[in-house]
Design a protein that fits this description.
By secondary structure, this protein is α/β, with parallel strands linked by helices. It folds into two domains: 29 residues, no CATH class; 255 residues, Aldolase class I (TIM Barrel). It has eleven helices and eight strands.
């Protein structure tokens, strides 16, 4: 590929080795990523055009964007995004097509041109009123492996319930580490394939956002664990989104946290302010998304 004019100029100024060093450093920078999780909304498909317009109004030049429509609406959204944002369904199974009533297979998504999927949301782990945990981390690792085998990228949601948060940061980190361990054991923590979404359960849909201090401390601790257990390069490149009552108002302050690499947004992703969340993190991280690397 022919070098850009700016690269030619740089090359003359600091020589080839200097350019390579700069390129390596640029690649190591984490491109921010924001997802809109519509959960079991909207009630009517007639409301979709407005929600799709919200996503299409996002400036994706400095931030990757994905949207998680409800299963019934995935096919109605796929193909309607015009700005590089992508559809990431809210769940997948771990076996593929067959006699699995009520399930969604990545093989089916792939045939629709979809290549991202969200797994592990606390609302599927049984944190919202189910009498038993519905999805264990071990099951989710199996899903992730199957998704990778089909060429998918995965958003993996983790996070602690309130009683764990009340015990302090060590308990919080231990809880998140337990959710990550099966992924480590199955060597799934590849920053080119997975994005972690830290979503403290107590902040989801409650209007109680984690403070920037809490978010930064937790994200940094997860990254430190990755560095120790998987490797420094993995830790440096792994993107960790924050999720839980994120909105246009609190996004700038949370985006300023060095270890917060974007957001997984619920309620506010159903509103026009979603694009402002995308802009806030793009501005805070201040780098252009590499054009060659689609979401
Ligand atoms: P809220 O932004 O509505 O709190 O939801 C967060 C979430 O669960 C995103 O997956």
């Amino acid at each position: 590929m022919a070098p850009l004019a700016s690269e030619r100029m740089l090359s003359r100024t600091i020589g080839r080795v200097g350019v390579l060093r700069l390129a390596t450093r640029a690649l190591a920078t984490r491109v921010p990523i924001v997802g809109g999780n519509w959960k079991c909304n909207p009630k009517s498909a007639a409301e979709l055009p407005e929600l799709i317009a919200n996503i299409n109004s996002c400036d994706t030049s400095g931030c990757e964007v994905y949207v998680c429509p409800s299963p019934l609406h995935v096919a109605l959204v796929q193909g309607k995004l015009t700005n590089g944002a992508v559809v990431a369904p809210q769940n997948c199974n771990f076996t593929g097509c067959g006699a699995y009533t009520g399930e969604m297979a990545v093989e089916q998504m792939k045939s629709m041109g979809i290549s991202w999927v969200l797994i592990g949301h606390s609302e599927r782990r049984g944190e919202f009123g189910l009498p038993t945990p519905a999805e264990s981390s071990a099951l989710l690792a199996t899903k992730c492996k199957h998704a990778y085998e089909n060429g998918f990228k995965v958003i993996y949601a983790i996070g602690e319930p309130l009683p764990v948060r009340e015990k302090g940061i060590s308990a919080v980190v231990a809880h998140c580490v337990e959710q990550l361990k099966p992924f480590k054991e199955m060597t799934l923590l590849d920053p080119d394939k997975i994005v972690l979404a830290y979503e403290p359960v107590w902040s989801i849909g409650t209007g109680v956002t984690a403070s920037p201090k809490q978010a930064q401390e937790t994200h940094a601790a997860i990254r430190a664990w990755l560095a120790k257990e998987v490797g420094k390069d993995t830790a440096d490149r792994m993107r960790i989104q924050y999720g839980g009552s994120a909105n246009a108002k609190n996004a700038p302050e949370l985006s300023a946290c060095p270890d917060v690499d974007g957001f997984l947004v619920g309620g506010a992703s159903l509103k026009a302010e979603f694009k402002d969340i995308v802009s806030a993190v793009a501005k805070a991280k201040g780098q252009k998304r590499p054009m060659s690397k689609g979401v």
